[in-house]
Amino acid sequence: MTExxxxxLGLDDANLRTxxxxxxxxxxxxxxxxTQADVQEGDIPIxxxxxxxxxxxxxxxxxxxxxxxxxxxxxxxxxxxxxxxFGLPTPNLEGVLKCEHKYWSRLEQQKVTxxxxxxxxxxxxxxxxxxxxxxFPMWLKPVKSFSSELAFHVKDEQQFREAVEEIxxxxxxxxxxxxxILDQIADVDIPPEVANAGALAALAEEEMTxxxxxxxxxxHNGEVVVYGALDSLNYPDSSSFQRHQYPSQLxxxxxxxxxxxxxxxMEQIGLDNSTFSxxxxxxxxxxxxxxxxxxxxxxQSHAEVFEDVDGxxxxxxxxxLGLGRRPRMPRDKGEYxxxxxxxxxxxxxxxxxxxxxxDEIAQIERDIPGVDIDIVPxxxxxxxxxxxxDSYSFELAFVYVGADSEDExxxxxxxxxxxxxxxxxxx
Length: 427
Prior knowledge:
By secondary structure, the protein is α+β, with helices and mostly antiparallel strands. Helices cover 34% and strands 26% of the residues. An eight-stranded antiparallel sheet has the order 12-11-8-9-10-13-16-15, sandwiched between helices. A four-stranded antiparallel sheet has the order 4-7-5-6, sandwiched between helices. The protein has a three-stranded parallel sheet with strand order 2-1-3, with helices on both faces. Helix 5 (93-100) packs across helix 6. The longest helix is centred in the middle third of the chain and has 18 residues, at 252-269.
């Protein structure tokens, strides 16, 4: 059988291994398109990145089967731009932008559901004040950001003003390239209130409480399919993720409500031929769910947990859609009953003076079945210099664990962290 050439924006080694395990992978040749550093680190020269990607694809001596990606912006917008340029199946750019721009997304969501918090736009020019009608505590975040970058929980006007200054100082890194897409690339009908806000404004939202959870799904030719629900559990007294676990352990009525809201808002937004993930806050005691945000991509963080439980990493859905086919994701065909991606974190800055060696990691993975470990910082790196961290902690390692129960899941993770050796110079 002839092999199909698939280009993956920002392809990294960990996800290449995962992509090698999707059904049909023996018939695919994966090619990196730009590097992970190009699309994940530092400044985002979006026009240059698009030109560079086009040049790489033009130089390819063969037939391009698909262009796909699992990272956040700029990858989410580049996939439809490049797909359209080369006549490939692709998400629609308007649908992507409606998800990516947090204010535009909220305007669409409120048309079909009340499962959202009170929100308001904040113009960062002048001396912004907390919006009328919103009460503290609230969250303040750019209308376009990712990985909780520049998202601040504020309890009073003083913290609001401090957050405004932090956002002003850092908003250009993502906001300016996103504004370029809105101005130069997007031949879509942008509502006046969104166009006037642009990408260099902030969104204030009243605090949502409860347990965080998420759904994963895809849209193929207008049909919305939600194929899984996960729990997103935080560290105690923190907004930083501790783990994503699948399947969700929330009560069935709560999960059903998340699935229903997901389908309703995705039909309203009109994203098509794309995977998606949606984050929620849930109240198991009342059955209430509130939608936090929509991502016009599946979460690469969840791929291995789907593989552990269902038997196939959900990268499979991205590949099938990229090839113009409807995915057929299996259920409960994996080795484990429950799986999680854990975020091993440090809650203070520091310079990394020692990280676990490859041999040490391999030994831990042999000693604890169902475990895979990816180290995040490099030796000698200052934690606060790492990209895409939240505002309160720093990632040291991603620990993927499959187990037969939630208790076993927790015990395996504890054994891993006790074995991992990191050392730091305090700063």
